[in-house]
Amino acid sequence: MNIVCLDLEGVLVPEIWIAFSEATGIPELKRTTRDEPDYDKLMQFRLKILKEHGLGLKEIQETIRGIDPLPGAREFLDALRAQRQVLILSDTFEEFASPLMEKLGRPTIFCNSLEVGTDGSITGYRMRCKNSKLTTVRALQSIGYETIAAGDSFNDLAMIEASKAGFLFRTTESIRASHPELSAFEDYDAFLAAILAV
């Protein structure tokens, strides 16, 4: 039995940190997992910037409420879920993901959680498990699933490469160039057709 494991940001919804960077005018927050392969290093950098500017969960959630899925993403996901089991694997946080899942028809998502102080400041984060995307794919495989994985960033590559089939979607030129063995897509129709052909 196949199960499709999809990344969230950049694949189904815009990058939350880029949207927040634009809302706050803080260019440093545009850095994402497309730019930095070390997730812990990236998050420590983000938390430092938030602290410097006195920003917390409330401000980020206000930005998230204004984010809609990428054009065509809901239709793509609905069509995919009608044909396959789908699991969204994301390094985002429960506190960020909930309103976005509502807009996507409440698909199943596995993600992480934030540590938030009484003043609303984000003091840290808890990863669901180490190497969460790869670990989840391996766990699914251990209980009889064959995985098909897709994403756009460095932190998606391990789950893609460990899967029966894997794809890149709207990735960067550098990731595409360094992984020519992976089919890369820019539009949902071709992406859907490739997944369903597996």
What does this protein look like?
- The chain is 43% helix and 21% strand.
- With 198 residues, it is α/β, with parallel strands linked by helices.
- Strands 4-3-2-1-5-6-7 form a 7-stranded mixed beta sheet, with helices on both faces.
- A hairpin with a 5-residue loop joins strand 3 (109-116) and strand 4.
- Helix 3 runs parallel beside helix 5 (94-103) and helix 4 (73-83) packs parallel to helix 9.
CATH topology of the largest domain: Rossmann fold
Which descriptor suits the 3D outline? globular
Instruction: Give the helix proportion (percent range).
Output: 40-55%
**What structural category do the secondary elements indicate?**
alpha/beta
What is the CATH first-level class name of the largest domain?
A: Alpha Beta
Tell me about the biggest sheet? 7 strands, mixed
Distance between the termini: 11 Å
Overall domain count: 2
- Regarding quaternary structure, what we see is single chain
Gross CATH architecture of the largest domain: 3-Layer(aba) Sandwich
* Helix run count: 9
Average pLDDT metric: 95
Order of helices and strands: EHHHHEHEEHEHEHEH
Rg, please?
Answer: 16 Å
Number of separate strands:
7
